[in-house]
Amino acid sequence: MAGPLPLGDPAPADGRLPADLRIEPESAFSAYLHVPFCRVRCGYCDFNTYTASELRGARQDAYADTLIQEIALAREVLAERGPLRPLSTVFFGGGTPTLLPAGDLGRMLRAAVDAFGIVGGAEVTVEANPDTVTSAVARELAEAGVTRMSIGMQSAVPHVLAALDRTHRPENVRTAVDAARSAGLAVSVDLIYGAPGESLDDWRASLTTAVDLDPDHISAYALIIEDGTKLARQIRRGEVPAPDDDLQADMYELADAVLADAGFDWYEVSNWARRAVTGAAPGEWDQRSRHNMAYWRGTDWWGFGPGAHSHVAGLRWWNVKHPAAYAQRLAMGESPAAGTERPDAEAAQLERILLRSRMAEGLPLDALAADARTRVAGLIADGLVDAGAALRGTLVLTRRGRLLADAVVRALTD
Question: Cis (ω within 30 of 0) for the bond into 263?
Answer without folding.
Answer: no
